[in-house]
Design goal:
Blueprint (H helix, E strand, L loop, with lengths): L1 E6 L3 H6 L2 H8 L3 E5 L5 H4 L1 H6 L3 E5 L9 E5 L5 E4 L4 H4 L4 E6 L2 E7 L7 H24 L2 E7 L23 H12 L2 E3 H5 L8 E2 L11 E2 L2 E6 L6 E6 L11 E5 L2
Parallel strand pairs: 1-2, 7-8
Antiparallel strand pairs: 1-14, 2-4, 3-4, 5-6, 6-7, 8-12, 9-12, 10-11, 13-14
């Protein structure tokens, strides 16, 4: 089972850059997208259906903003949108889908770069999302959590970390949240296979950052301990360029 997570920074823009051709070639079993910036009818679910995918789309109420989607070759046994908190759910940030014993959670964590108000909103979201995951894990022990977390965890996860010690996305309290997620039983799948530096998933459009590989690792697949025995591989696809992010991939035994 191949599961791909990808912040497309606008699904319509990504499609115009050849996204659907790439999807057909990559052919994941499950595709989780963040920041789709589109209403369901603008996502063109018929195009995904033609490739064999069932579509779940959770848009933000605000047009052209945020939103997540999940596409799967198998129809889920159960799915839900949001975490039952209207203050976040109106921004289309979470999808849950169950496939047998495995639960997939796709998340787009808010960014805090626009100022103190949004940074506070981000930290409140992280607190409430942690409680949501902790409760879900009691009900559904086998979880794969993926998405754009808008946090680089360790100094190895971004270029020039000394410069960003007090920047949103690398704040001590944000990094501590990821520490606590791991302490609660989640596993960073990529770091199970690759402990090297300069492995990023997002690059600024400014100053040729991507060409120089001056980026941040913001996108993750986490799994709970009961899923670890099924973990086959995890990798980053920096050569895929429909967005300022790139896809991240995890493979599990069925």
């Amino acid at each position: 089972m191949k599961i791909v997570s990808y912040n497309v920074n606008g699904i319509r823009a990504a499609v115009n850059k050849g996204f659907m051709n790439w999807l057909q070639e990559e052919n994941p079993d499950i595709l989780c997208l963040q920041e789709i910036k589109a209403m369901p009818e603008q996502v063109n679910p018929e195009a995904f259906q033609a490739l064999g995918y069932f579509s779940l789309i959770n848009p933000a109420e605000k047009k052209g903003y945020s939103g997540v989607a999940l596409f799967s070759k198998q129809v889920p046994d159960f799915y839900s949108f949001g975490i039952n908190k209207e203050v976040y759910d109106t921004e289309g940030r979470v999808i849950r889908a169950d496939f047998g014993n495995l639960t997939i959670v796709c998340v787009y964590v808010p960014a805090g770069i626009s100022g103190e108000i949004r940074q506070a909103y981000k930290m409140e979201f992280l607190k409430d999302f942690f409680h949501y995951l902790h409760g879900l894990k009691k009900e559904r022990p086998e979880i794969l959590l993926c998405g754009d977390f808008n946090i680089s965890h360790k100094e190895i996860d971004l270029y020039n970390p000394e410069k960003y010690q007090f920047a949103s996305g690398f704040l001590p309290e944000e990094r501590k949240w990821l520490d606590e997620l791991l302490e609660d039983g989640f596993i960073d799948t990529f770091r199970e296979f690759d402990h090297s530096a300069e492995k990023y998933t997002w690059w600024s459009y400014m100053a040729s950052a991507r060409a120089k590989n001056r980026g941040w690792r913001l996108d993750y697949h986490f799994i709970t301990e009961p899923v670890k025995a099924r973990l086959k591989n995890a990798c980053i696809l920096p050569q895929v360029v429909h967005s300022d992010h790139c896809p991240v991939v995890v493979e599990l035994d069925n």
